[in-house]
Amino acid sequence: MNFSTQYNKYKNIIDKRLSQVTIYRKPNSVYFPIKYILEGTGKRIRPVITMLACESVCGKNNKSIFAATAVEMLHTFTLVHDDVMDNSSTRRGRKTVHKKWDVNTAILVGDEIIALSYKELLKTSSKNIESILKVFTNGIVKVCEGQALDKEFELRKNVILPEYIKMIDMKTGSMVSSAAEIGGIIGGGNSKEILALRKFGESIGRAFQIQDDLLDAISTKKTFGKEVGNDIISGKKTFLLLHAIKKAKGKDYQLLKSVINKNGTSGKNINKVKEIYKRLGIIEIALKAVKNEISIACRHLNKLPASKSREMLFWFASTLLQRKF
Amino acid sequence: MNFSTQYNKYKNIIDKRLSQVTIYRKPNSVYFPIKYILEGTGKRIRPVITMLACESVCGKNNKSIFAATAVEMLHTFTLVHDDVMDNSSTRRGRKTVHKKWDVNTAILVGDEIIALSYKELLKTSSKNIESILKVFTNGIVKVCEGQALDKEFELRKNVILPEYIKMIDMKTGSMVSSAAEIGGIIGGGNSKEILALRKFGESIGRAFQIQDDLLDAISTKKTFGKEVGNDIISGKKTFLLLHAIKKAKGKDYQLLKSVINKNGTSGKNINKVKEIYKRLGIIEIALKAVKNEISIACRHLNKLPASKSREMLFWFASTLLQRKF
Question: Is A163 an interface residue toward B (CB < 8 Å)?
Fold first, then answer.
């Protein structure tokens, strides 16, 4: 069985479980939208990492299904509330919850998903359930703090790169690292293995986010699955923009500075900004940063015993580089 | 020391702890509003119940401080998000979070408070931490389901009394009963005592909500601390209105029905509706229901060993009847 088929096997386990968590629950006004968002398409990256992390330290993946599902639910809650805060209309090709229903429903749906994710996590049978809950909880605390920083950055003109890295580590990285760490704990890993898995998750999370920034500048709508150049139009202080503003001079600097100062720019400037990114070598810098994080992630994996699941995690890390969407 | 002084002693412990949970935490964009809302005035009913419940089964109240604080935090999260959903401007005499800041901040603040409440709860040292977490989590699930029902009822014209009771049991009762149950578990109560505390909380929660409905119809602005008659103006399907519509005939029925059908009425009808409540004996019915729930609550307390804390819980239940705000 190749890695991709194997990945889908894990993904299907999560999809199946996600369709079970709301069954028979009422009232419909909150559970219909919860079903809608939990059963939508999703790559299920975080829960698959949890299951693989569990296996990689000699645990059985079925021990981690509830925790993995909880991790995906928690991720879904952040999407629902972030979409309200960003006033986004679509998510994974479908209407966002607050557009299909309304803002009040989306708020309540997010809240209820948090509670249900704890309910799911608490189904885990592990003598270390307390540690698992602490890691999970710290993950949410960090995600919210990261979201707060992200929102602060929208209003600030002077964000610098280390601040940005800190923000994505919190907003994206913390749940990926928690996902991996929780899998390691459930699998019965020793403290070094668990730390290695956590560090693996941190680097994967960071690589994923920088790749996301990169794709907005180099992908096409067809492969990206959504409009490209959106980050430029909205003046988002991405890895690329923050790097470019450090290097740019003269007219280049003026244009990038105006994108930041005016919180965005018109669509006709997308290509100009992209051209600056290319000319200043920003695309290569970002690509190198992604590769670097992935190689750090893999170095951490090397601390785990050799196994099929570790191979899967290696494969998974390397596929990030080929990610087009 | 009299009961009231004693109550304030417990309340002060919670107030102090609430001021500590956010200390040194950043970013300010989320923690300033969290401090604002956690450190506002509040009766701290739920956490005091947790501490008394713990003591009443021979536990020490300092064992339950973290859990009690977590319970109050969870209650505060529901206030912040409910205020957004109801678009309320004031809470406990001050601006609501979404009015003082904005809706996005209020959403994030609520989310972060949920996470912090789990963090606080997880500080509890108890061999039964898993049960405690399950009770706490089920509490949130029920609160959200209750809120969903409450919002559904706003749109429905045919809500009946048993549905209303179910809704308040979920929205108000579930956190009060969880608060009492968690205290009982931490205190090391046996299963009968823990169940008695849970049932005590359920009845107290129900009594509290019916009393709330009652005060809106019989209190004065000065003692109630907010406008009275608001439920009538907004056509809220309260214990009183749902009872009255069952009993009313002729013109009375027409007026009450129009309050329900039009989702409210003008201020000039407040006194007419109040007059109907009086004439049909609805005020007495509500008062009797509150008394009945309080006596059920006290019967459950009788299953606990006699102690100072149980006396405090008896006193607390009886003061509900004298509650004016």
Answer: no
Give me the residue from A111, A116, A152 closest to B27, CB to CB.
A152
* ipTM exceeding the 0.95 mark: yes
CB contact under 8 A, A112 and B27: no
Distance CA A162, CA A71 (A): 27
Contact B107 A85 (CB under 8 A): yes
Q: Where are the domains of chain A?
A: 3-322
Residue among B81, B110, B152 minimizing CB distance to A27: B152
Q: Please state which CATH class domain B3-322 belongs to.
A: mainly alpha
SS3 of chain B: CCHHHHHHHHHHHHHHHHHHCCCCCCCHHHHHHHHHHHCCCCCCHHHHHHHHHHHHCCCCHHHHHHHHHHHHHHHHHHHHHHHHHHCCCEECCEECHHHHCCHHHHHHHHHHHHHHHHHHHCCCCCCCHHHHHHHHHHHHHHHHHHHHHHHHHHHCCCCCHHHHHHHHHHHHHHHHHHHHHHHHHHCCCCHHHHHHHHHHHHHHHHHHHHHHHHHHHHCCHHHHCCCCCHHHHCCCCCHHHHHHHHHCCHHHHHHHHHHHHCCCCCHHHHHHHHHHHHHCCHHHHHHHHHHHHHHHHHHHHCCCCCCHHHHHHHHHHHHHHHCCC
- Of chain A, the percentage scoring pLDDT greater than 70 comes to 98
Which residue, chain included where needed, has tokens 């009538």?
B232
Q: Which pLDDT belongs to residue A324? A: 64
pLDDT digits (tens, 9 = 90+) for A84-143: 999 999 998 899 999 999 999 999 999 999 999 999 999 999 999 999 999 999 999 999
Q: What is the pLDDT of residue B324?
A: 64
Q: What residues contact B164, with CB distance under 8 A and at least 6 apart? A: B153, B237, B238, B239, B242
Chain A residues within an 8 Å CB radius of B115? 137, 140-141, 144
End-to-end CA distance of chain B: 24
B187-208 tens-digit pLDDT:
999 999 999 999 999 999 999 9
Q: Which residue has the tokens 């019989």?
A: B218
Looking at residue B219, its pLDDT comes to 85
pLDDT of B240 = 97
Q: Is A111 on the interface with B (CB under 8 A)?
A: yes
Q: Which residue of B has its CA nearest to A163?
A: B27
Q: Is B29 on the interface with A (CB under 8 A)?
A: yes
The mean predicted confidence, pLDDT, of chain B is 95
Cα B320 to Cα B325: distance, rounded to the nearest angstrom:
10
| pLDDT at residue A213, as a whole number | 95
Comparing CB atoms, the residue among A112, A114, A151 nearest residue B104 is A151
On whether the CB atoms of residues A195 and A276 are closer than 8 A, the answer is no
Position B320 pLDDT exceeds 90: no
Contacts of B306 (CB under 8 A, 6+ apart): none
pLDDT above 80: residue A301: yes
Assign residue A102 a region: left if phi > 0, alpha if psi is -120 to 50, beta otherwise? beta
| Coil vs helix vs strand at A91 | strand
